[in-house]
Amino acid sequence: MEPTLGGIIGTIIFGAVIGILARLIKPGRQNISMVATVVIGIIGAVVGYFLAALIGVEATDGIDWIRWIISIVVAIIVLGIYLGMSGRKGGTRP
């Protein structure tokens, strides 16, 4: 299946939302760019949807809360790994 422009734009928007939510939930300040936030969110979304499919969470009418939660948790983990690998330690929020 070939990706469509709408699918690519939707993935970027969804990744941005997941990445921003992950940064808001993770304690401390994260000194990373918006591009890194979107990429982390996209990774969280893709892995989160894969994990949700593995546990049998099917697409539902309306908002798929379980897949959203899994995607955000995965994005928080990826964010922590990124911060640890890049040496960008998060300080405490004022």
Task: Describe it.
The chain has 94 residues and is mainly α. The chain has a domain at 34-86. The chain is 68% helix and 0% strand. It has three helices and no strands. Helix 1 (5-25) packs across helix 2, helix 1 crosses helix 3 and helix 2 crosses helix 3 (65-86). The radius of gyration is 14 Å and the shape is globular.
Question: Secondary structure elements and their pairing?
Answer:
Elements: H1 5-25, H2 34-54, H3 65-86
Helix pairs in contact: 1-2, 1-3, 2-3
What keywords describe this structure?
94 residues; mainly alpha; 3 helices; globular
Content of β-strand: under 5%
Estimated radius of gyration: 14 Å
- One letter per element, helices H and strands E, the order comes to HHH
Count of distinct strands: 0
Helix/strand/pairing category: mainly alpha
Span of the ends, CA to CA: 47 Å
Query: How can the largest sheet be summarized?
Result: none
Helix content: 55-70%
User: Which ranges are low-confidence, i.e. pLDDT below 50, for 5 or more consecutive residues?
Assistant: none
Average pLDDT over all residues: 85
Number of helices: 3
Shape: globular
Q: What would you say about this model in short?
A:
The protein is mainly alpha-helical.
